[in-house]
Amino acid sequence: MEQMDNLLLVDANDERRQQLETVLSFMGIQWQSGGEEDCLAYLSAVENISAVIVGDLKTTTLLELATRYSSVPFISAEQSELSNSNIIGFLSQPFVTVHPSPIDSRM
After folding, report:
1. Whole-angstrom distance between the N-terminal and C-terminal Cα of the chain?
2. pLDDT tens, 55-92?
3. What is the pLDDT of residues 46-61, one digit of tens each?
4. Is the peptide bond before 100 cis (omega within 30 degrees of 0)?
5. In terms of C-beta distances under 8 Å and separation of at least 24 residues, what long-range contacts does 26-32 make, across chains too?
6. CA 45, CA 69: separation in Å to the nearest integer?
7. Contacts with 17 (C-beta within 8 Å, 6 or more apart), sequence order
8. Is 74 exposed, middle or buried (0-12, 13-18, 19+ CB in 10 A)?
9. How confident is the model at residue 1 (pLDDT cuts 50, 70, 90)?
C-alpha cells in the first residue's frame, strides 16, 4: 500500500480534528490542518495532496470542494452522501476503541 504523503484535514470541530490528528500521527501519516481559510488556501496552492478529510465547514460545502478539486479524493468526517466519484467514504466516531488487555488465565 502506498503511503499517503500529504493529507489535509479541514474541520471546524476542534475536538474531532485533534482526535484525527492524533490517529494520523500514530499511523505515521503526514498531515496538515489549521483554520478553514488557511486550509482552503493550501488546497488551492499545493498540487500533491493525497486526500482531504473534511468535517464541519463554515464557508463552503464538501460537495463544492469535491466538484472544484475533482482530481483530489475526499473523505467526510461525518456520514454523508457519496455524491461525487471523488468523495470516497466517510469516517465514524469513535476513531479508536481501546480494548482491555486479555486476562491471563494462568493466574
Report:
1. 41
2. 999 999 999 999 999 999 999 988 777 778 899 988 87
3. 888 999 999 999 999 9
4. no
5. 28/3, 29/3, 29/4, 30/4, 30/5, 30/6, 31/6, 31/7, 32/6, 32/7, 32/8
6. 12
7. 9, 11, 33, 55
8. buried
9. very low
Return the amino acid letter for 100: P
Q: Which three cell numbers stand for residue 21?
A: 490528528
Q: Cell digits for 75?
A: 473523505
Secondary structure string (H, E, C) spanning 31-58: EEECCHHHHHHHHHHCCCCCEEEECCCC
Q: What is the pTM (predicted TM-score) of this model?
A: 0.81
